[in-house]
Structures are given as structure tokens and as C-alpha cells.
């Protein structure tokens, strides 16, 4: 890490718009910040997104760096806030999926890069289903097949399809609920860690 004098000089240069100083600041702090955020998110993709957002925020508000006395503390506070916001977005997306699980007709498929993390959590939950439940779940929810169509394709009864689907939905929702609880715990821990 830089000594206090050199870091103050670097921050001063960033605050006046030096992109070279900003790159130095980024390369100095990115590994530490990535490690810190990964402990919260447990996701490389989300960590990378948050780190980029943090440094973008620093650049956009660079004039205020002249006032910063302890950059490490400043960086962690900004990071904590970005991480909490990202995790809250994840919770909202997971809650939307729970609604979709109960009401598939309300769901409109809309996947973009920002939502990859949330959908990977859903995919993980689906992957943990037993093979037959997973097959029925995917055919019904993603291929929009009726119970009878699934029964015909798999050579099982319509009631078996209903049973597999019902158990599968409960298992996926339970898995996602435990992840939501974990995310809320992380938010609580990180809020207390740096305050």
C-alpha cells in the first residue's frame, strides 16, 4: 500500500481529473476491494460488477477526494453501500421468481447481463432437484408444456406430473428462500462491520 503522503498526492491528482492517477489508484486497490466484496457476494460476476460500479462512482465524484482523509475507510464505505444495493436487487429478483413459480403466466422472460447472477441462483436451485422433478419442472416452466403433454412425452401419468411439479416448485422456492435469508444475513453483517 502507498504511504499516506503518496496516497494523498495520488488522490489529489485523481480529484483534478488525472486518468493516469486514477488507473494507479484502481490497480492499487482493486485486488483488496475484490477480495472484500467477494466475501460478501460469493459471486465472481457480481463482485466484478460491484468493483466497477465503486470505481465509476469514485471517478464521477472525484472532486470530493480532496476531502478524504482515510481512503481505505472511504473505499470500504462506498463498497459496502454498492454491495448492499446489489444484494437487495438480488432479493427483488428472487422474490419475482417466487411469484413466477406460483403464476407462470405473469412471467415475461427478460434476461440481460445484469440479471445473470440472479438467474444463476435459480438455475442452481433447479439443478438440485432430483432428475425426474427437474425434467418435469423444466418442461412445464420453460417449454410451457401442459401436464398431459409432459405425461405423454415422459410416459408417466398426468397425476405423477402434477406431483413432481408441486414437489419441485416447493423445493426450488425453499432453496431460494434459504439464499434470500443468507443474503439478508450478509447485509446485516456488512452493515455492522464498517459502521
How many extended strands? 0
What sort of overall outline do the alpha carbons produce when their principal axes are compared?
rod-shaped
Major β-sheet annotation: none
DSSP strand content: under 5%
How would you summarize the topology of this molecule?
Blueprint: H1 4-15, H2 19-41, H3 44-60, H4 71-102, H5 116-127, H6 131-141, H7 147-154, H8 158-194
Please give a structural write-up.
The chain has 195 residues and is mainly α. It is 78% helix and 0% strand. The protein is built from eight helices and no strands. The protein has helices at 4-15, 19-41, 44-60, 71-102, 116-127, 131-141, 147-154, 158-194. α2 (19-41) packs antiparallel against α3 and α6 (131-141) packs across α8 (158-194). It is rod-shaped and about 75 Å long. Mean pLDDT is 78; it is low at 106-114.
Task: Write out key terms for the chains shown.
single chain, mainly alpha, Arc Repressor Mutant, subunit A, Rna Polymerase Sigma Factor, Chain: A, rod-shaped, 2 domains
Quick description:
The protein has 8 helices and no strands. By secondary structure, it is an all-alpha fold.
